[in-house]
Structure formats: C-alpha cells, structure tokens
Automatic annotation (TrEMBL):
Signal peptide: none annotated. PANTHER family: BHLH DOMAIN-CONTAINING PROTEIN, HYPOTHETICAL CYTOSOLIC PROTEIN. Gene3D superfamilies: Bacterial Pleckstrin homology domain (2.30.29.50). This is Cytoplasmic protein. Pfam families: bPH_1 (PF08000). Residues 14-120 form the Bacterial Pleckstrin homology domain. SUPFAM superfamilies: PH domain-like (SSF50729).
C-alpha cells in the first residue's frame, strides 16, 4: 500500500490514461468519474471509491493499486484554486488509515469530486 505520510504525490493533472489502467479492477456498475496523472503515479475517482496508483521500479512495470472506499471517509477538506494560485488540494480522513492528501494542478473537477464524497458521507447518516 502507498505510504501517504511519506509519499508525496506530484501535482496531478486531469488525464484519462489511468482510467484505462484500472478498468480491469472495476466492479459491475462501477464507473470512472475522473482520472488524474502525475509524472508516473495516478489517481482515479469512481462512483464507489478512489483508486491510487503508485508506479514502482525503473521500468514502471510494477504498480501498486490502493483502493480507498468512500464508505471509510470520516471527513474531508477541499482547497480550491484561486486567481494566482492555480493549484487545488483534497485532504481526506479515512477511519483506521488517517489522512490522504492529493494536490491538483490545471483543470480539476474538485467541486464535482467534493459533491461525490459528500453524497457518500451524508447518505450514510440519513
């Protein structure tokens, strides 16, 4: 599993390459909402979970796929981009895992991702 405390994700840019890479892992009825890529690593948001992809080794043929179900989220924080600071951040707190932080640059559907997480959080309590 990715060590989110010590592993710094490079800034993620919207890119569908990782949506294709995780397609074999998706369950029936699970759909990709958005996908992002850094230099080597990536993250995919589906309608059921977040899949973080850590590319390992010199050749990049070894990959670690970490599944982060929305049902295990206890809180989250979103920092949107501004006029001069175009980066946005998403911090998610998972029960028994702790904080996971993703940094995005460029065009990001951070509001859509926030709504998706909120939907899963709030429907648990209704």
């Amino acid at each position: 599993m990715i060590d989110f405390n010590n592993k710094g994700f490079f800034k993620l840019k919207q890119n569908n390459e990782y949506a294709e890479r995780v397609s074999a892992l998706l369950l029936e009825g699970e759909q990709v909402v958005d996908a992002y890529k850094s230099m080597r690593d990536g993250v995919v948001f589906t309608n059921k979970r977040i899949i973080a992809v850590n590319v390992q080794g010199i050749t990049g043929s070894k990959k670690d796929f970490t599944s982060l179900p929305y049902k295990n989220i206890v809180a989250y924080s979103v920092e949107t981009s501004g006029t001069f600071d175009l980066d946005s951040e998403l911090e998610i707190y998972f029960s028994s895992l702790g904080k996971v932080k993703f940094e995005f640059t460029g065009k990001t559907s951070i509001v859509e991702i926030s709504r998706l997480i909120s939907k899963h959080l709030l429907t648990r309590f209704n």
